[in-house]
Amino acid sequence: MPRPWSRSCGRSAITTPPSASRSPLRSASPSSSTWHASGACTAAAWNTYVRAQDALAWKQALDLLDELKPAYKLAVGQKPALATTYPRLATFFDTHKNIAERASVTKKTKKKEKAAEAAAQAQATEAVSLAPSTPKSTQSLNPR
Prior knowledge:
Helix content: over 70%
Oligomer: single chain
Shape: flat
Radius of gyration: 31 Å
Number of strands: 0
Number of helices: 4
């Protein structure tokens, strides 16, 4: 089976053997950097592939939870003790809601941080513009 993460790496990292006329240290540098770059490329491609597969798996799992939620609500409606006996099950079925709440909190926090950073930047800019400028001397520092 072909590895889907290997398609995005471009050219191969295999290099020709070093020539005999070059020193071992000098000849090792280009090939080691090529191998290093290839490893980074492969790792980045693998990471992209894994993240995509992880997102796909979670989407399928959350869709399945959405399908099972009405059955859970029906069961809790007939036997309310289920909600207190298994409180984490209710949390489990409210996963979408929990994710949305956390995303909202994160968004608000980042917005506040960005506003504070912009205010600090504006304050620094204002302080620089209000600072008295020093006149340049017209006299030479080295009189003859």
